[in-house]
Specification:
Length: 1055
C-alpha cells in the first residue's frame, strides 16, 4: 500500500493519485534531507526542466491538500460545536445542584421543628396496620376450610396440608386463641384433617399398585396386556415409562429426606435403555404434546427432557415454596417416585404414618390377590379374542418356546407328520410321560410362562413402589414424634430398630415382600396342582402330619399324582396402633371374605396343569428374584434367601426330578422292550435322509431319541438342575445301548463274520479300505490307492484261505441282515442327535456351583455315548460287508474240485451263481430303505473283488476244463456283473474291471502254449506267477503242454 493511498481524493480527480504515485518516497521520509536534491539540481545539465518538474509535483501536492481540507472541514466544525454545547450543559448542571442543596437544607430545618408529631403519627399507623392484619388473618382463617376443600378437589394435597398446618399454627397464636368465632373453624379443620388423610391414603394405595394418574405404567391393571394405545392423554404423557430393569437405590445413611435425600438421587431409577428415563414436568408449559403418526406411532416434539426434569411437577403447582419442593424440583427421580415421595411427606406432615402403615398392611394381601385374578381374567379374555379372531390349526411346534434356545427343531419331529403317512407323535405319545401340551415347548408350558411372566412383571412394578414408600417410612421412623404434625426436619439419622416397625404401623419393606411372594407361591401351587399346607406350623410337624394321613385333595387342586408341598411364608407381625385400629374399624380396611383362600382361576387360561409346568415357572421365578434382589437395600438383601426361588428349587429337587426320573424310566423301558421296538419297518423302497420324509428309524430308538430330547429340553428350561437331568439321559442311553447291543449279538452270535471283524489283522486291513470313509465311525485316515489295493488283495487272501465255509457259519436269515442295516442307520441317527444335544447342554449349574468337573462332564459324557453308538453302527455295517463277502466265497467254492468239461455253449450261469445273484438282489432290495447309497456300496462293494479272487484261485483246484467250460465261467461272471450293476451307488467301473480280469484269465486257457508264453512275456504284471503257473497246471483237452513248461514260464517271469 502506498503512502498516499488513504487520502480522500474525489473520483473525478483520480489523476492526482497517479501523480502522487510518481513522487519519490524520499520526499516523505521521516527525516527529510534536502541536500541531495539541491546537489542534484545544481549538477544537472538541464536545470530548468528539473525545476519545472519539482514545481509540477508541488502543485499536485497542494491540490491534494486542498481536497483533504475540503473533505474534513465539516467534521472539524461539528466537533467544535459539540464540545461547546457540552461545556454549556455542564455549567447549567452545576448551578442547579447548588440550588438543590440549598432546598434540602431548608427542608431539614422545617422537619426538625415537628419531630414529636411525626413520631405519634407513625405509632398510630403501625397500630392500625396490626389491627387490619389481624382482621385479615381472621377473615383468611375463616376461608381456610373451603380453600382446603378446593385444593383436595384439585388433588393439590401438599398445598392443602401446607394451608392446614399454617392455619393450625395461626389458631394457636396468642391473639387468636380467645376469638370465639374461630371455634367452628377449628372443628372443621379437625374434620378436614381426617378427610385429607383418607384422600391421601386412597391416592397412595392407587399409586402403590400402579392404578394412579402418575403411576409408572400408563395402562391400568385391568387392561389386556396386548392392547397398546397409540395416543395418550395429558396425564399419561406426564408418566414415566420405565423398563423392567429399573431398580431403586438404597437411601444413604447421611442423606436428608427434605433436601439431600432427594437431590442425591436416593430413589433414582436406572434404565437399560438410553433415553427411557423421564423425570418431572411442569404443569402446563412442560407437557409434551404427542403427535400421532399415520401408522399409529407416537412421536415426541423434541422438547429437551433435561430442562423438563428440573421444572415443578403439576401436583405442587399451588404449593408454597419450601425445602421439600425445591428438593423435588432439583431431583432426577422419575415422576411416579416423586409423587410417592410427596404423598409420604404429606402423611408425615399430618402425623399419620402409623395409621397409614397399618391400613396398607391390612389391604396388601386382598389387593394382590385381586390383581392376580384380574391379570388371569385379562389373559383369558385375550385368549378368547384370539381364538375368535383366527381359527387356524393348532400351532404346537414352536408355541412360545422362549426359554429353549436352538432346540425348537428338536421337538418339531415329535409334532410334525412325515410324508410317508406315519406320525412320530404316535411314538411320542406312546412313551412320553407327558402330553405334547406339557412337553418342553408345548402350549401348556408356553401359556404358563407367559402368564407367570405377566403376573410377576406386575408384582415387580408394585414391589418397586413399596420399596420407595417403605424406605421413606423407615427413614422417617427413625425420627421422634413422627405421628404428630410437624414441619420438615433438617437432620435425619438412620436407626433401624424394633420401634421403627411400630412407628410405621407394622409396615416395612419385608412385609410386602413376604406377602407378594406368598401370593405368588399360592398361584404357583395352583398351577402345579400342589396342595400347600398351612405355613405357620413347624416343618417337622408338617412332615409328621403328612406321614400319618394322605394329603387331602379337593376337586380343584387334585393332581394325578397327589403331590403335596409345604411352604413357610408367613405375614410379618403387624403392630397396629390404636389410631390405626380405629381407622380399620371405620371401614377402610375391610377385607374381602376368604380372599386369600380363594383360587385364582388359572385353569381357565392354561391348557393343562401339573408339576411338569415347574420347568416353565423356574426361569420367570429366577428372573423375578434377580429383579427383587436388585431393588432391595443392602440391609434387606437377605430377605430373598428363603423366598419364592427357594420354594421352586426345593419343589423341583424334591418332587419334580424324582417323579421325572421314574416316569421317563418307565417310558424308556416301554420303548425298548416292546415287540415292535426293533422291528424294521419301511414305507418307501428307497432311503430318505430325514425322519420327516420317512427315514425308517427303529421305533424303539426313535422313541429314545425323542425322550432324550425332551429330558434335555427340561434341562434347558432349568439350567441349575441340568447336571441331574443329563445324568438321567445318560442312564437312559446306557440302558438303550445295552438293548441295542443285545439285538446285535442275537443276530451275529456264533457267526463267522462276527469273529472275523474282531481279528486285529482283518480290522487293520478293513481300516485301509477306501470304502470305510462312509462309516459312521471313521476307521482310519485317508490312504493311498496302492495301499487300498494291497489291503483289498491281502484281505481277499485271508478270506479265501479260511477253511471251507459251512452254511451254519453264515447268517442265512435275511431279516437279521435287514435288522443289522436298520440298526446301523438308527444308531447313527441317535448318535448324531446325542452329539448335537451334548453341545447344547446348559452349564449354568456347574458354573453356579464352581464345579469345573461337572461343567465339562455333561457334554463329554454325551459325546462318549455318541461314539459308542457310532461304533456299534459301524460294527453292523462291517458285519454286513464281511457277510456278503463270505456268502460269495461260500457259493463260489463249488467251482473247486470239479471238471468244467461242457459239451455245449453255456446259455445260463451255474446254479450256485444264480443262487448268489438272487441272494444279492434280494438282500439289496431288503436293505435299500434302511441304509444310504454310500453304505450300500460299502456293504455290497466287496463282492466283486472277492468273487474275482475266488474265481481265479479256483482254477488251481480244478481237475480239467475245456472251451465250453471257459465260456460257462465267463457266463457266470456276466451274470454276477449284471446283478451288481442293478445295485445303485455301486462302482460299476470297479465291478467291470474285476470281472474282466476273471474273463481274461480264463480265456488264456484257449491259447496254444507258445501264444500263452508270448502273452505272459508281454503282460507279466497282469497276474501273479502262481496264477500263471495254474494256467499251465490245469488239464485243458486239446492243448499240448511240454514237460518243461514250468521251467520256461519261470525263465520268462524271472526276466
Amino acid at each position: 500500500m502506498g503512502t498516499f493511498d488513504g487520502l480522500p481524493v474525489p473520483s473525478d480527480k483520480t489523476y492526482l493519485r497517479e501523480e502522487l504515485a510518481r513522487i519519490d518516497e524520499s520526499w516523505v521520509a521521516a527525516r527529510f534531507d534536502s541536500l541531495p536534491h539541491v546537489v542534484h539540481i545544481l549538477t544537472s545539465k538541464d536545470r530548468e526542466t528539473d525545476i519545472l518538474l519539482l514545481r509540477e509535483q508541488s502543485d499536485v501536492v497542494e491540490e491534494v491538500v486542498d481536497e483533504v481540507v475540503h473533505a474534513y472541514h465539516g467534521g472539524f466544525n461539528k466537533a467544535i460545536q459539540n464540545y461547546s454545547q457540552i461545556l454549556r450543559l455542564f455549567s447549567e448542571s452545576t448551578d442547579k445542584i447548588g440550588d438543590l442543596k440549598h432546598d434540602l437544607a431548608e427542608a431539614k430545618r422545617s422537619l426538625g421543628t415537628r419531630n414529636k408529631q411525626l413520631h405519634q403519627l407513625w405509632y398510630r399507623s403501625v397500630t392500625l396496620r396490626h389491627i387490619i392484619a389481624l382482621l385479615d388473618q381472621i377473615e383468611g382463617i375463616a376461608k381456610v376450610p373451603s380453600r382446603i376443600e378446593k385444593l383436595i378437589a384439585d388433588r393439590q394435597f401438599y398445598a392443602a396440608i401446607q394451608v392446614y398446618l399454617q392455619s393450625s399454627l395461626m389458631l394457636e397464636r396468642e391473639g387468636l386463641q380467645t376469638v370465639g368465632a374461630l371455634q367452628d373453624v377449628r372443628s372443621e379443620l379437625a374434620k378436614l384433617r381426617g378427610a385429607l388423610f383418607f384422600k391421601i391414603l386412597d391416592d397412595l394405595h392407587a399409586h402403590l399398585y400402579n392404578r394412579g394418574e402418575y403411576s409408572s405404567v400408563a395402562s391400568s391393571i385391568y387392561e389386556r396386556d396386548d392392547e397398546v394405545p397409540t395416543t395418550t392423554a395429558v396425564a399419561a404423557s406426564r408418566m414415566s415409562s420405565q423398563p423392567l430393569s429399573r431398580r431403586t437405590r438404597t437411601l444413604k445413611g447421611d442423606s436428608q429426606f427434605g433436601v439431600r435425600g432427594l437431590t442425591n438421587g436416593s430413589y433414582r431409577t436406572a434404565s437399560t435403555e438410553e433415553g427411557s428415563s423421564f423425570d418431572g414436568h411442569d404443569e402446563e408449559d412442560s407437557v409434551e404434546h404427542d403427535e400421532a403418526t399415520g401408522d399409529g406411532q407416537t412421536i415426541r416434539n423434541g422438547t429437551d427432557s433435561k430442562l423438563l426434569s428440573y421444572q415443578l411437577p403439576p401436583w405442587l403447582s399451588d404449593s408454597s415454596p419450601d425445602e421439600f419442593i425445591e428438593a423435588v424440583r432439583k431431583s432426577d427421580d422419575p415422576l411416579h417416585v416423586k409423587y410417592l415421595q410427596t404423598l409420604v411427606q404429606c402423611l408425615c406432615m399430618l402425623g399419620k404414618v402409623a395409621a397409614a402403615g397399618a391400613i396398607i398392611c391390612q389391604r396388601l394381601r386382598p389387593t394382590i390377590h385381586e390383581i392376580i385374578i384380574s391379570k388371569i381374567k385379562a389373559h383369558m379374555e385375550t385368549k378368547n379374542l384370539s381364538k375368535s379372531a383366527c381359527s387356524q390349526g393348532d400351532r404346537t411346534g414352536a408355541a412360545g418356546l422362549h426359554f429353549i434356545k436352538g432346540q425348537s427343531e428338536a421337538y418339531r419331529l415329535s409334532k410334525d407328520k412325515p410324508q410317508n403317512g406315519t406320525s412320530n407323535s404316535g411314538t411320542h405319545l406312546a412313551v412320553s410321560p407327558v402330553s405334547p401340551l406339557m412337553a418342553p415347548g408345548g402350549k401348556a408350558q408356553a401359556a404358563a410362562k407367559d402368564l407367570l411372566d405377566s403376573i410377576l412383571d406386575t408384582i415387580v412394578k408394585i414391589f418397586e413402589n413399596h420399596v420407595v414408600v417403605g424406605e421413606l417410612l423407615e427413614l422417617r421412623a427413625s425420627q421422634h414424634d413422627i405421628n404428630t404434625p410437624k414441619s420438615l426436619p433438617t437432620d435425619v439419622n438412620w436407626n433401624a430398630d424394633s420401634e421403627a416397625s411400630q412407628a410405621t404401623g407394622g409396615y416395612t419393606i419385608s412385609f410386602p415382600l413376604t406377602v407378594l411372594q406368598s401370593e405368588c407361591q399360592q398361584l404357583i401351587c395352583e398351577i402345579l396342582r400342589a396342595t400347600p399346607e398351612a405355613a405357620s406350623a413347624d416343618a417337622a410337624a408338617q412332615t409328621a402330619k403328612l406321614a400319618k394321613k394322605a394329603p387331602k385333595k379337593d376337586k380343584r387342586d387334585a393332581s394325578e399324582d397327589g403331590v403335596t408341598f409345604t411352604f413357610r411364608f408367613t405375614d410379618a407381625t403387624v403392630s397396629i396402633s390404636n389410631q390405626g385400629a380405629d381407622l380399620i374399624r371405620q371401614g377402610w380396611g375391610k377385607r374381602a371374605p376368604n380372599s386369600s383362600q380363594e383360587g385364582y382361576g388359572s385353569a381357565a387360561v392354561l391348557p393343562e396343569q401339573g408339576m411338569y409346568l415347574a420347568a416353565s415357572i423356574y426361569r420367570p421365578v429366577l428372573q423375578f428374584t434377580d429383579k427383587i434382589t436388585s431393588m432391595l437395600p443392602k440391609k434387606h438383601s437377605q430377605l430373598v434367601n428363603d423366598g419364592l426361588l427357594t420354594f421352586t428349587e426345593n419343589f423341583v429337587k424334591d418332587h419334580l426330578l424324582p417323579t421325572m426320573f421314574v416316569d421317563y424310566r418307565k417310558g424308556v423301558q416301554q420303548a425298548i422292550s416292546s415287540a415292535a421296538a426293533f422291528r424294521p419297518r419301511a414305507h418307501t423302497t428307497t432311503y430318505t435322509p430325514t425322519v420327516e420324509k420317512g427315514r425308517p428309524i427303529l421305533q424303539g430308538l426313535l422313541a429314545i431319541e425323542l425322550l432324550a430330547k425332551e429330558v434335555l429340553g427340561w434341562a434347558q428350561a432349568m439350567p441349575k438342575f441340568a447336571t441331574d437331568l443329563v445324568k438321567y439321559v445318560q442312564t437312559f442311553l446306557e440302558r438303550t445301548f445295552e438293548r441295542c447291543r443285545t439285538a446285535y449279538m442275537e443276530a451275529v452270535l456264533e457267526k463267522l463274520s462276527y469273529r472275523l471283524i474282531g481279528r486285529h489283522d482283518i480290522e487293520r486291513l478293513m481300516r485301509l479300505d477306501t470304502g470305510s470313509a462312509c462309516l459312521p465311525s471313521q476307521l482310519g485316515h485317508s490312504v493311498s490307492h496302492s495301499e487300498a489295493v494291497g489291503s483289498e488283495v491281502e484281505l481277499c487272501e485271508l478270506f479265501l484261505n479260511l477253511p471251507s465255509i459251512k452254511q451254519d457259519n453264515l447268517i442265512r436269515d435275511d431279516n437279521k441282515l435287514i435288522l443289522l442295516a436298520s440298526l446301523s442307520d438308527s444308531l447313527e441317527y441317535v448318535a448324531d442327535s446325542i452329539e448335537r444335544l451334548g453341545q447344547a447342554v446348559p452349564r449354568a449349574a456347574s458354573q453356579a456351583e464352581g464345579n469345573s468337573r461337572n461343567q465339562a462332564t455333561s457334554p463329554r459324557n454325551l459325546a462318549s455315548f455318541a461314539d459308542e453308538y457310532r461304533k456299534l453302527a459301524t460294527d453292523c455295517l462291517k458285519v454286513l460287508r464281511v457277510e456278503m463277502q463270505l456268502e460269495t466265497v461260500f457259493h463260489l467254492q463249488e467251482m473247486t474240485n470239479r471238471e468244467y468239461l461242457e459239451d455245449e455253449d453255456a446259455e445260463e450261469p451255474d446254479d450256485f451263481v444264480i443262487s448268489l445273484t438272487s441272494q444279492i438282489t434280494r438282500r439289496d432290495e431288503g436293505m435299500a430303505p434302511f441304509i444310504s447309497g454310500e453304505k450300500r456300496n460299502y456293504v455290497f462293494g466287496g463282492i466283486c473283488g472277492i468273487a474275482a479272487s475266488a474265481s481265479i484261485k479256483a482254477l488251481a483246484d480244478m481237475r480239467s476244463i475245456n472251451l465250453f467250460g471257459v465260456q460257462q465261467i465267463c457266463r457266470n461272471t456276466i451274470a454276477l456283473e449284471q446283478a451288481m450293476a442293478a445295485i445303485p451307488y455301486v462302482d460299476g467301473d470297479s465291478v467291470q474291471q474285476n470281472l474282466d480280469r476273471v474273463r481274461t484269465y480264463y480265456e488264456l486257457l484257449n491259447m496254444p502254449f507258445e501264444a500263452l508264453l508270448a502273452f505272459i512275456a508281454e503282460h507279466d504284471q497282469m497276474f501273479t506267477p502262481t496264477e500263471y503257473s495254474n494256467l499251465l497246471k490245469v488239464n485243458v483237452p486239446g492243448r499240448d503242454t511240454p514237460s518243461d513248461a514250468q521251467i520256461r514260464l519261470s525263465e520268462i517271469l524271472s526276466h
